[in-house]
Amino acid sequence: MVGEGRALVRQAVLSGSTVDSRREGRSNDCFTALVEPSPACVRQAAVAGRAGWGSCGSGGVYSFYVFEGSFHQGGGGWEDIEVGCDLAAIQRAAVDYVRMGNWASAEGDDLLFRVYQGGRLTVETSLYPLLRVKVAGLEAITFDEHGEPRGGAPEAGGEFADRRDEYTEDPGEWLEDFFAAEFEEIASEQPGDIDVTVDWPKAAIPALTEPLLPSDGHVWVLADEEVWGDVTAHGTGPAPEDEPSDDDGRWLVAGYNSIHA
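Structure (tokenized):
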């Protein structure tokens, strides 16, 4: 459930060659000046060349989609990340993540979809406002732009009917307790009782431009816990163990990536 402060940064739809200036002042010179790259890009290219990576200035930077379900707190947490070019597969990964339920008790988690075009982060949006969760015995649950749940009243004759008075007294607290104490257990023991839908048409996800990330591709994405940026190195085969620059980031491979702090 995304906090208000982080949502202001997260809810960015980036246009063309422009990346949000709030991204900690990180330069995009590697992408905006491919003909005459900046000194920083030249340094990155030299390091990448020695290590056998493709660099930001070498051309042919891949396009791909990213789904991220994550939680960060006090230096710990997790990131479940799906990377690829098959939009339907990435969408299934997002729905499966929600249905698994490990996010439910993590106050301040993120549920994000990103689009990279030619190595540039061009779209980043929270899926929470597009999410609908239906649990057997409860009315449908939706979420606001900050990830706070709404709805979910116990249905008459349902499993939670005897707790309707508790819900009526304080719906917000009731839902918070439900997600913290019961949702994950239902997801584990009765997964058929949970239906998850995302309003994908409203997300207006664009088609990817060539070249697409290969099935054995990997990319170095500028990122920290709060903010992601562009791709500064890429290649195929197993991702290198070394980091291609001093900037915070991570190697991502096509497919599933699990990162735990």
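Helices lie at 4-10, 29-32, 39-51, 87-100, 164-169, 171-189, 200-203. The chain has seven helices and 14 strands.
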